[in-house]
Amino acid sequence: MAKLAFISFLISSMLHARPEVVATSPAMGLYVPIFDVNGVKTWEITGSTGEVRDGGLIAVSNMLINRCGEDNSVIFSIESPQANMMPSSNIAAGDGLVLLRGKNFVAVAKDWKFFGKEKKFVANRDVMVVFDENVAEFVTP
User: Fold this and answer.
1) What is the CATH number of domain 26-138?
2) In this structure, what are the phi and psi dihedrals at residue 97, rounded to the nearest 5 degrees?
3) Which of 54, 70, 74, 75 is 20 to 30 A from 36 via CA?
């Protein structure tokens, strides 16, 4: 099916017609790198499948979002078995489980939303955070 859609696109392009691509099944092996104006990869989004739904929503299975540093290291990552991405507003969200990993912490939660532009993560249920550093100076008895 993918070969047929690509061939239709090429033929339409050669005839100067406006091609129309309609997804009839989920895309397999989703991989979307995002680069800044200098060509440095800043984000990386992967998933087993991605399916476009109404309103530009993309349902992604086995989603992984990596925030990349200048040296291509991972600053933080967000993993979820099932997530909805809204590219127009730069938001990812899900009702089910999510795993958020940073340099010094790991968080697990349900019913979550990530606001990419603001780099803000909101978790509403069953939240657990584990810090991998000494927090004794921040905790008062």
Assistant:
1) 2.60.450.10
2) -65, 150
3) 54
**Could you state, in order of their start, the residue ranges of all structural domains in the chain?**
26-138
Using CA atoms, how far apart are residues 2 and 39, in angstroms rounded to an integer? 29
Q: What angle do CA 61, 66, 67 make, to 5 degrees?
A: 145
Span between the terminal Cα atoms of the chain, in Å:
64
How far apart are the C-alpha atoms of 39 and 81, rounded to whole Å? Answer: 30
How many angstroms separate the Cα of 66 from the Cα of each of 34, 35, 80, 84, 121?
A: 10, 12, 12, 16, 14
CA separation for the pair 78, 98 (Å, rounded)? 7
